[in-house]
Amino acid sequence: MSAGAVEDAIARFFVDGAGRVGSADHDALWSALREAAEGGKRIRPMLLTTVYEALGGTDERVAGEVAAALELLHTAFVVHDDVIDGDTVRRGRPNVSGTFAGQARSFGLAAERAARYGDAAGILAGDLALAGAVRTLALCGAGHETVRRMLDLVDRALHVTAAGELTDVRLGMLGGRDLTETLTMEEHKTAVYSFELPLQLAAVLAGSDDACTEALGRFGLLLGVAFQLRDDLDGMFGDRARTGKSALSDLREGKCTPLMTYARDTDAWPEIAPHLGAETVDEGTAARVRDLLLACGARRFVEDLARGYAQAASEVVAHLTVAPLLQEWVTAVTDEVRSAA
Predict the structure, then answer these.
(1) For the segment 294-323, what is each residue's pLDDT rounded down to a tens digit?
(2) 160-195 tens-digit pLDDT
(3) How far apart are CA 169 and CA 117, in angstroms?
(4) Beta-bridge partner residues of 94
(5) What is the pTM of this model?
């Protein structure tokens, strides 16, 4: 199934919404949201459309609409997440909040008031994307019962992801000492909506039975955590030229990743702790923290954990006809972890 159906559906969404309100503020907000939805990897639409087709689905237009809804949902979470984290740049350019904060500064507003204006725009743009995702799914053209089941899945994912986001903020502020809680946070914040949801929507849309839908969801959850663990490793040890991630950002933001949760119970923690959440962290400090995480076993532990989740994901779907396709994704994540090591 071509990516064109998804891109066409996203384009229709923004064209249809452009004339809803005749005001300059709406036009500016809508334009910023459209830019926020551009340039992503489209991982979630790819997961949905690929599995939908592998399960025998043939309605490219309907699948494109559902995949577009997933991308809009992702855009909503990204825009809101930037507000929560206080980020003003994404993919190397000003995000929604950063764009509007910059405009406010050009009007002569002080930095603090400009930031509030930017955050307001980010919240509102994210709300529009979220509402648009639900509306796009509801009007995708599938049968009534299929749409109802998909909306139930999206509703659950929204609740779980919101809770995971708040847990992430709390752990970042207070520190996480429980590895199970940290892993559950990563499962809730990322794996559910990014992996479990696309695969379950694909199964429902293709008319698969409940057992297949449940197995695919479980696979997505396990693979999603493995993917996030790999992302955590990249955030600390990855080559920025390859990953696009700075090794400084996770440290400066004080992210409570499993790497840090594990390190808390080792002798290396007293030397690591002062740098977690410190905005003054530089390349030299980050290199020292990496050495400590390696020496205390945190890196090896998380690498093994990621491989374990990936293996468990393979076993959950070994009986399905789409298992060879899914195994390719498991292998890709496993190879990435091995390459990073």
Answers:
(1) 999 999 999 999 999 999 999 999 999 999
(2) 999 999 999 998 888 777 899 999 999 999 999 999
(3) 22
(4) 89
(5) 0.92
Residue 100: closest CA among 108, 85, 88: 88
Residue 180 burial (10 A CB sphere; 0-12, 13-18, 19+)? exposed
**Residue that is written with structure tokens 């509030």 in the block:** 116
What CA–CA distance (Å, rounded) separates 3 from 5?
Answer: 6
From residue 302, alpha-carbon distances to 142, 254, 331 in Å are 41, 18, 17
**Coil, strand or helix at 87:** coil
Alpha helices in the chain (DSSP H): 4-18, 24-36, 43-54, 60-85, 96-106, 111-138, 144-174, 179-186, 197-205, 210-237, 240-243, 249-253, 258-263, 269-272, 283-295, 298-316, 323-340
| Alpha carbons 207 and 151: distance in angstroms, whole number | 15
Integer Cα distance of 27 and 21 in angstroms: 8
Residue 324 sits at the vertex; the CA angle it makes with 70 and 63, to the nearest 5 degrees, is 25
Identify whether the C-beta of residue 120 lies closer than 8 Å to the C-beta of residue 205. Answer: no
* Furthest C-alpha separation in the chain: 63
Contact present, 275 and 281 (Cβ < 8 Å): yes
